Amino acid sequence: xxxxxxxxxxxxxxxxxxxxxxxxxxxxxxxxxxxxxxxxxxxxxxxxxxxxxxxxxxxxxxxxxxxxxxxxxxxxxxxxxxxxxxxxxxxxxxxxxxxxxxxxxxxxxxxxxxxxxxxxxxxxxxxxxxxxxxxxxxxxxxxxxxxxxxxxxxxxxxxxxxxxxxxxxxxxxxxxxxxxxxxxxxxxxxxxxxxxxxxxxxxxxxxxxxxxxxxxx
Length: 217
Ligand SMILES: C[S@@+](CC[C@H](N)C(=O)[O-])C[C@H]1O[C@@H](n2cnc3c(N)ncnc32)[C@H](O)[C@@H]1O
Fold this sequence. Notes:
Rossmann fold, 23% strand
């Protein structure tokens, strides 16, 4: 089975549990655990919106959109069009429900697609891939594709390699048959250059690096 198929199966099984991290509808214990162990997810959310304004009137690509929480926020902030893509059918279905509940479904569209398969007719003003490169073994083709799909800002998160959490997370996910990959700052710089992305900012955000970049051309 190829890497992408394994990811699809994993996320099709774990989509609800993943989205619970964003939800306020959970037990007090789960809220405390998430705010302690998953706080990087909230921080990266904040990073994306601190760095992507002005959003109004812009086209947005949310690559590996998962349950669409970022897509929903871009739509609420008056993006012109938000396109979310993901390899997991269940994530896509949940994303559609979430943007409908937020009454921004007219602004959003979702497609079941990998980054490499996706063939839009346009380039995007803002592209993000958050929590996605964690799960891609050879990231250069996907990074290159993101650069090609973008005419403006590109924001990407990468999990940092030298943290206490990296081996713990690797073990936990491998028990669930999900591979996860970690990156050093120099590796991110080399990969971005090879992909045709000029890094404007690379910031430690908890146990992640969050990168703001622009395509070369
Ligand atoms: C941890 S979730 C992050 C979802 C969302 N970006 C967020 O931060 O809330 C990772 C998502 O990436 C998707 N994914 C993994 N590899 C992908 C690929 N090659 N192309 C598109 N989506 C992918 C998974 O299906 C999953 O929904």
